[in-house]
Amino acid sequence: MEDGRLDQDGPHLWATTARAHLGRRYVLSASHRLFSASLSEAENQNVYGKCANPHGHGHNYTVEVIVGGEIDRRTGMVCDLAELDGWVRREVLEPFDHQNLNTLEVFREVVPTTENLLIEIHRGLALVLPRAMTLAVRVEETSNNFFEYCEDPI
Amino acid sequence: MILLTRKAEFSASHYYWNEAWSAEENARVFGKCSNRNGHGHNYTLEVTVAGEADPVTGFVVDLKQLKDVMEKEVVAAYDHRHLNLEVPEFKTTIPTTENIAVAIFRRLQGKIPGARLHRVRVYEMPDLFADCYAA
């Protein structure tokens, strides 16, 4: 292992900058119905099955937000956790938590599948994240189904 | 290409402190993690290697060898230790989850026979983890 050094930034081991990805998990509870107005009732049943039931159903979605960047040599962190929690609270939890997704403007013409929810979550966070950071989002709809979106395939 | 992941756990204590800063600055940035008495976590380590399945054995990597390397290079050094006080790389760098992931990646790189180290993931809590990927 390399010897560490202490300079005006404080302790740091890495002779060159090191990159890491910080992941944080959040839970949001929401209801949705998968139904497309451009399909007939029979086609909706055929495509979406019981997810098309008329009164909708719900999930505790687990949202995993993974930000990538250089490790700050002063703090040892890629990202301040409180800042990340704030971004997620404003861009993800406040819009979607304890909501009926079908009633939201962003899903007025888009079926609120978890794929489309994932895209909206990623879009909202990408707007507020510092440009130097990469962003990947994973949404677990149930313990058996999850969906991922990342800017740079790793 | 196949990715194979093995988990291990270790229990360790640590604190976050930048020697170049005042006590007030450390408290402001790191909050209760700056308590010099330290605190602890049950860390979960996931080591992911990449490779093709061997046509004879069907293995991407010999799991016993991978387990032994993880035990020798990481668990033996970190488990039931105070990271700041007992682990060489954390005498001069802050043992955040990010730095732990990078340190473990560097400990393991080149030591896993027959497979390429792809990713190290370290969970500090069930809802907080850091990844270090191969460049």
Question: What's the short version?
Answer:
The complex is a heterodimer of chains A (154) and B (135). With 154 residues, chain A is of the alpha+beta class.
Number of domains of chain A: 1
Radius of gyration of chain B: 16 Å
Any idea how many domains of chain B?
Answer: 1
Q: Order of helices and strands of chain B, N to C?
A: EHEHEHHEE
> What does the largest sheet of chain A look like?
5 strands, mixed
Radius of gyration of chain A: 20 Å
Chain-averaged pLDDT of chain A:
88
What is the H/E order of chain A? EEEHEHEHEE
Strand neighbour order, sheet with most strands of chain A: 5-3-4-6-7
CATH superfamily of chain A: 6-pyruvoyl tetrahydropterin synthase/QueD
Mass-distribution shape of chain B: elongated
Q: What is the fourth-level CATH superfamily of chain B?
A: 6-pyruvoyl tetrahydropterin synthase/QueD
* Structural class determined from secondary elements of chain B: alpha+beta
Report the major sheet of chain B.
5 strands, mixed
